[in-house]
Amino acid sequence: MTQIRFGILTVSDRSARGERADLSGPALASYVASRGWITSLLEIVPDDRARLAATLEVWCESGDLDVILTTGGTGFAPRDITPEATRDVIERDAPGLTETIRSESLKVTKHAMLSRAVAGIRGRTLILNLPGSPRGARQSLQIVSDVLEHAVQLLREDPASEQGHRPG
């Protein structure tokens, strides 16, 4: 089993101001722990594009995280800027993750098609945008969790990443 180090960043004006408890970040941390992985950072930032991008950049550059999960700010509301801030930071897109989440989530709710979430890579860190609701965030992470160990192995250039690939 590959040990994955996560950073979880809740994007919410109200939670950042202390007006509403952050339920999504802890829900994701609980799921991460249930898989035997580690949550190294758990923070809340307001819906501010520059601040979110700066936080993502610092977290990626630290080298301490394999995966950064954002929760919130992926919808149609005017202050929902998480995908834009993520695009400001990533160097390479990883669209298959969010395409799969949207596809599978459509089986649960039609509102999944309103997600603007993105995923991408900066250096050796994967950033994945998730919905802001605890249930939606957790379900979305569950959809892609089985491929995260392999993704991290590839980012680390771990020789074990080749195991299980079919020859030819």
How would you portray this structure in words?
The protein has 168 residues and is α/β, with parallel strands linked by helices. The chain has one domain: MoaB/Mog-like domain (Molybdenum Cofactor Biosythetic Enzyme, Chain A, 3-Layer(aba) Sandwich). It is built from six helices and six strands. The chain has helices at 13-16, 24-34, 49-62, 82-89, 95-105, 134-156, and strands at residues 5-11, 38-45, 67-71, 92-93, 119-122, 125-130. It has a six-stranded mixed beta sheet, with helices on both faces. A hairpin with a 2-residue loop joins strand 5 and strand 6. Helix 2 (24-34) crosses helix 6 (134-156) and helix 5 packs antiparallel against helix 6.
Determine the fraction of residues in helical runs and give it as a percent range. Answer: 40-55%
Structural class: alpha/beta
Q: Tally of extended strands?
A: 6
Query: Which of globular, elongated, flat, extended, rod-shaped describes the shape?
Result: globular
Reading side by side through the largest sheet, how are the strands ordered?
A: 2-1-3-6-5-4
Strand content: 15-25%
Mean pLDDT: 96
* Whole-number count of domains: 1
